[in-house]
Design brief:
Elements (H helix, E strand, L loop, with lengths): L2 H34 L3 H12 L7 H16 L4 E13 L5 E5 L6 E2 L2 E3 L11 E8 L2 H12 L3 E4 L10 H6 L3 H11 L5 E5 L27 E4 L1 H13 L4 E5 L3 E15 L4 E11 L9 H20 L6 E8 L7 H12 L3 E7 L7 E7 L2 H8 L2 H4 L6 E4 L15 E7 L4 H4 L12 H21 L12
Parallel strand pairs: 5-6, 6-7, 7-8, 11-12, 11-13, 13-16, 14-15
Antiparallel strand pairs: 1-10, 2-3, 2-9, 4-8, 5-9, 10-12, 14-16
Helix pairs in contact: 1-13, 2-8, 4-6, 8-13
Amino acid sequence: MNKYLFTFLLFATTISFSQDKDDEVQLKNIYKTALTNGQSYQWLDHLSNKIGGRLSGSLNAEKAVKYTKEELESLGLDKVWLQPVMVPKWVRGPKEVAYIEAQPGSKNEVPICALGGSVATPKEGIKAKVIEVESLEELDSLGEQKIKGKIVFYNRPMQADLINTFHAYGGCVDQRASGAKEAAKYGAVGVIVRSMNLRLDDFPHTGAMNYGNLPRRKWIPAAAISTNGAELLSKMIKWNLDTQFYFKQSCEQFKDVESYNVIGEMTGTEFPKEVMVVGGHLDSWDLGDGSHDDGAGVVQSMEVLRLLKKTGYKPKRTIRVVLFMNEENGLRGGRKYAEVARQKNERHVFALESDSGGFTPRGFSFDANDAAFAQVQSWRSLFKPYLIHYFEKGESGADIGPLKNNEIVMAGLRPDSQRYFDYHHAANDTFDAVNKRELELGAATMTSLMYLFDKYGVKTQPQPKIKG
């Protein structure tokens, strides 16, 4: 071998080994700092227990904006600001009431909750016979003759044999989102939807629904019923086809109000015009305090910047934490952030979102080109000591989605998902359901990925050569 070539290869190998060692040391420092001197759990404690549920347009959402802005300012970032965004204001009102009446005078009360965006029932409530369906297609096959004047009960459960519970959720959420709109077309007077939950319990799970282009005069009330309640209702209908269902809810939609995305920034030392984003959504549903969805993602994203500063790392690229408002019932915050970024001709090269709960991190899913994904795969050994093994192509996150273009790499933190839908959009999504160590491990894992993308940049896809 040519001695000059040998010397070059030896030098390159030495540099590569040195870089790997530097990265190992930095990741170890990040994890150690997160687990021994973390801040995410304390932030979540305040967000959940001192403020509570943060539905868009609510007083609690305003408090959360103020609190997180102040906390980001205390970190000594280069810039912290609020980005105005108009959001919907939907108010649940007094607790909903429901019961099953299989025979006159026999009432079995069941837990329900109005779906987000639903209209109220009449003041006296609604009572009608129930027709059970498992899909929108089954609804269509029955037609107006069998549906008119009845309450449609959607009872398709999440598919239990799917290991990825988000796939199970995606397989049945259409009945919640579009169930009322479709049932109203056939003359239904109301809709009851089985909660998106893999276990049997007494917690109804809310979530967004919409009426599409349906005229307002045809809008009908929609509510979720707990899985135990759904099982009972289904049995009673089979026992007696004349079973009736009563429910009453007093929710109301008001005019849009102004709210804010909360943004903090560390300016890049070498490539300040290359922007990297990490974030979660600050709003939550109102039944619990939104600790998993998405208080965990909020505080983990804040912790990314704190850990980088705490470990003495100075980013090459501009790193922003964005706490998005209104993911749950509108995605207004994510769209506004992307809109302003385009107006300012900002170049976003990487975006990471945490919106899958504060459980043990398993890895990431990536929306990336082949070159960038190969780059990520080369880092797997760095994450192996921390039991992070999941590096797959897939979806990233709803709030960062509007940033998508041909250049940006987008990623979503993927914690263990088996328990997530026990809490998702329900009253038991509270601070006590979050494990401190799991939350901190997630923050460290996110910080490590941000560090690597900042240090090495984003690999671009080679462009094909043009002949001629």
